[in-house]
Task: structure prediction
Amino acid sequence: MLLVLAAVAGWPLLRTIWFSFTDASFSNISEYSWVGLENYLVYEDGLWFGVLADPAWWQSVWNTLFFTVVSVGAETVLGLIIALTLNAQFRGRGLIRAATLIPWAVPTIVSAKMWGWMLHDQFGIINDMLMTLGIIAEPLNWTANADLSMWAVIMVDVWKTTPFMALLTLAALQMLPSDCYEAAKVDGIHPVSVFFKVTLPLIMPALMVAIIFRVLDALRVFDVIYVLTSNSEDTMSMSVYARQQLVQFQDVGYGSAASTVLFLIIALLTISYLYLGRKKIGGES
Amino acid sequence: MNLKLAKKLLAKVAFLILLAAILIFTVFPFYYAILTSFESGSDLFTVEYWFSSFDLANYKSVLGEASFVTSIWNSILVASSTVVIAMAFGLTAAYALGRVKFRGRGAVLMIVLSVSMFPQVAVLSGLFEVIRAMNLYNDPLALIFSYTIFTLPFTVWILTTFMRQLPKELEEAAIVDGASPLTTLFRVFIPLMWPAMATTGLLAFIAAWNEFLFALTFTLTNSERTVPVAIALITGGSQHELPWGNLMAASVIVTVPLVVLVLIFQRRIVSGLTAGAVKG
Result:
């Protein structure tokens, strides 16, 4: 098992890092020469070149961070609301829970296309709804307008992954001991403060794990953005940028440099999370 | 007293509205895709909220395209082989990690977990070279091979978690009876692990079915593509003239099997997701 993982993950990763120091091209990947740090940053004729000097790269870094913070934030809040609702006892709970699983089961590509259709500038139902409600006066071009396209991407992602958040939160909620709530009820504490003082602290660890998972996932986002807005610079994420350099511009060295930076960012986050997590586990035992 | 009753009623109505909002939020986009897929011609370009026509033309034209049908077969082939491979490696690894005590067990689990955090694009160029070297470029086999990168980690995690929960006495009894580790695995654990295997298998299947980045990069011709790529690449006469009816029909065809599977196994999936994440 470890050997397979090494073959499919470890070795390619090392090769990618290696390529980032070369000028290999996609069509002829076996012939390349060493160029040192040229793909990352180089000073030539009074100008800086390389990934770290490319405004498009920093734009994609900013896009990715914005996307991650906003969509994970929204997913957490919505997921929490859905989980709290599903945690109550009512008839038809199974039905609603099954319905929340649907977005999770829909392939990302399909959900991007579905939303692409709903957000269509001329025939889209979202524009129609908003116009009927009188919120907007004329149809908006969601996926092509620079100010709106990022929100369109976030909308799709929130729709697709809120169920994941909701289910993880629900699982945490159902493991809570009921005696805390009985005590709070006896003491006559308002439900809202019960939520903030009792429920939230108790589910915090599980919620944090779910958030970390989603953050790491959102940082490498590729397919939603690629399908919904293709290579538009306004929404380009780090993964889209790296792949564009790699495949479309055939510049394996440059693309590899970009993916190496992305890998380092994610690795740094993971390590700091694991370090903090281990500290906590150590404290418990 | 009346005020209290009114308050209670209000709370109930608010709760129902909340439920309706959740239901609309989760189901509506898929419902609208189904609705669109049954419309054709100019019907497509008027916004409808209810089913007004029931036209199978879109389905006929999508299924009439040989390359789309081939890509469905490719997807089935890739996803099920991925599941089989992930199961085979995942079970043996989980047995070792969950049952055999050895040094560095924690470290191995950490490595496995960190692989699941990998950004796929970071291995793209390296993996591309490996696939070229193995002469698998533009071949579904390349996808089966590369999908183990994300299916193996969580298969190993979930199966290890389940394996640890099984009582130790069973294994000891098998050892006392003189069973070898492999016999123990196949005769004792696998029958008990059925539910866990169904869960992980399903999750692996869905993950492989939905994968896009590798499938897009490692295949070149229509006959080798998987469905997500085929759908993403459906285009019309120009960029702004996408055949939305066909697109929605194809989307529904690809999604309905998954939704049905998920609804049948929903309890299993929920437990699998939580075992994979919460205990991670």
